[in-house]
Structure formats: C-alpha cells, structure tokens
Amino acid sequence: MTGGLRDRDLAFQAAEAALREAEEGIAPQVTEPSWIQHLGNLPNDLTAQSHTWWTNDSNTQEVDFEIVATNPRYVSEGEAFLRDTLRIGSGPVTGRHIYRTTSRGTGGTDNAVIILRSRYAKRYN
Fold first, then answer.
1. Rounded Cα distance, 37 and 46, in Å
2. How far is residue 97 from each of residues 46, 79, 110, measured CA to CA in Å?
3. Is 80 exceeded by the pLDDT of residue 94?
4. How many CB atoms lie within 10 A of CB 63?
5. Measuring CA to CA, which of 26, 51, 59, 80 is 20 to 30 A from 38?
6. Nearest Cα to Cα of residue 103 among 90, 113, 117
7. CA-to-CA distance for 88 and 50, rounded, in angstroms?
8. In the chain, where does DSSP find H-type helix?
9. Please, what's the b/e burial string for 32-41 (b: 16 or more CB within 10 A of its CB; e: otherwise)?
10. What positions does the domain PilX/PilW C-terminal occupy (predicted)?
C-alpha cells in the first residue's frame, strides 16, 4: 500500500513539474510562442488520451524528470483573449491571453498516472 501511495505522489510531482515548465516557458515571451496549440487542433478531452498518444504525439512537450518511469509531458492551448476594456474604437487592443495547460505525469511505474490542468494569463502588450 505504501508503495502505491509513493508511486502516485511521484506521478503528482511529475505532472506539477510539467505545469511549471509550461508556465515558465510562456512567462518570458514577448510574443505568443510557436509551440502553443489552439483549441480545435487537439482532441476534445486530453485527459482521456492514452499513454501512447501522450508519448508519441508531436503536440506535447516533454520535461526531463529522472525519478519516474516516463518523463512527464504537457500541452498548452491558447484558450481566450480577455480585452482590458469593452470600448470600441481605434488604437491597439490590449488584454491578456489565457492558456490552458494539461500535463500528464507517471510515478515510479507507468501504472500511476496523474493528469493536471491549469490556466495561465499572459499580457504581451
């Protein structure tokens, strides 16, 4: 029983590490990163995708995390743009881009799987 809890804890840590890596990859950018996917380009339910999809899909990014069976992976999707104002007129539109990141981590074995999702806001203007 203890081994199963440790395995699940490692999977959670791996999935969290992938979320952090995604956010740290977006934070310093001055324009939207090229690796961002847009809604509609990926399957509707990323949480239901198989181990094979996560490890072979070119839309996911891998994170080096040596203490688990399979390195965690994540995918970030551009979800929305929230304007700062409802005003209509000329001039640049300012606001925040909202990204949805889904990560998948495994533990010491591939039997323990944790999938996490977060949202991250980034202002480019």
1. 13
2. 21, 8, 34
3. yes
4. 19
5. 51
6. 117
7. 45
8. 2-26, 51-56
9. eeeebeeeee
10. 47-122
Q: Which has the higher per-residue pLDDT, 78 or 20?
A: 20
pLDDT digits 0-9 by tens, 13-56:
999 999 999 999 999 988 888 777 776 677 778 888 888 888 88
Q: Write out the H or E segment, with its range, that includes residue 96.
A: strand 95-106
Are 77 and 93 within 8 A, CB to CB? no
Whole-angstrom CA distances from 122 to 63, 87, 100 are 21, 21, 11
pLDDT tens digits, one per residue of 47-65: 888 888 888 877 788 999 9
3 state DSSP class of 59: coil
d(CA 107, CA 111): 7
Asked if residues 63 and 74 have their Cβ atoms less than 8 Å apart, the reply is yes
Specify the number of domains making up the chain: 1
Q: What value does the mean pLDDT of the chain take?
A: 87
